């Protein structure tokens, strides 16, 4: 069962991770602090995803780690170990929004792109997304790794962190339109 797999993977990793965000409010505060900076100029490997709220119809923006390959962008809805152990089926609001309306905007280095987002289920595309997300290491990933894992960040630790996120999270792809808007 998927939730058992996620719970087991999280339980195996929980000792290595810092408990950075303790509540949903903490996550909203962190995102609120990061959002203006990323809207202005997202660094490589990061972006701002804008979805349409499934209940309100309002635009909702979220800071995300995203890797672009051609006309596709790959990202993962993360489940930190402390959440995955207790709620392995937890789903971020932005994923619910994509399920309701897959049309999104993505601000990444290179511009703002309109696109259509979807959860990845195809095995070949999952493999491509996993490689793209887990192999990519950018300068900002070292700081991110220091926030999430104990000890000094290394390229190997960063890639292990990304593999954990991919294997326990919800992989999403965005089919980007040709040119930035």
TrEMBL record:
UniProt GO molecular function: oxidoreductase activity
Domain of life: Bacteria
InterPro entries, per the entry: F420H2_quin_Rdtase, Split_barrel_FMN-bd
Pfam family, one: F420H2_quin_red
The protein, known as: Nitroreductase family deazaflavin-dependent oxidoreductase
Organism per entry: Mycobacterium talmoniae
């Amino acid at each position: 069962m998927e939730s058992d797999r996620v719970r087991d993977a999280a339980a195996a990793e929980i000792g290595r991770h810092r408990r950075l965000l303790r509540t949903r409010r903490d996550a909203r505060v962190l995102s609120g602090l990061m959002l203006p900076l990323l809207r202005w100029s997202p660094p490589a490997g990061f972006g701002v995803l804008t979805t349409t709220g499934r209940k309100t119809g309002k635009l909702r923006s979220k800071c995300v780690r995203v890797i672009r390959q051609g006309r596709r962008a790959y990202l993962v809805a993360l489940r930190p170990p402390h959440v995955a152990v207790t709620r392995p089926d937890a789903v971020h609001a932005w994923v619910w929004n994509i399920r309701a309306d897959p049309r999104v905007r993505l601000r990444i280095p290179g511009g703002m792109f309109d696109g259509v987002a979807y959860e990845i289920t195809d095995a070949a595309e999952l493999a491509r997304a996993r490689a793209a997300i887990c192999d990519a290491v950018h300068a900002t990933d070292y700081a991110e790794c220091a926030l999430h894992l104990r000890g000094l960040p290394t390229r190997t630790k960063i890639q292990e962190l990304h593999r954990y996120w991919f294997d326990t999270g919800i992989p999403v792809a965005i089919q980007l339109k040709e040119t930035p808007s």
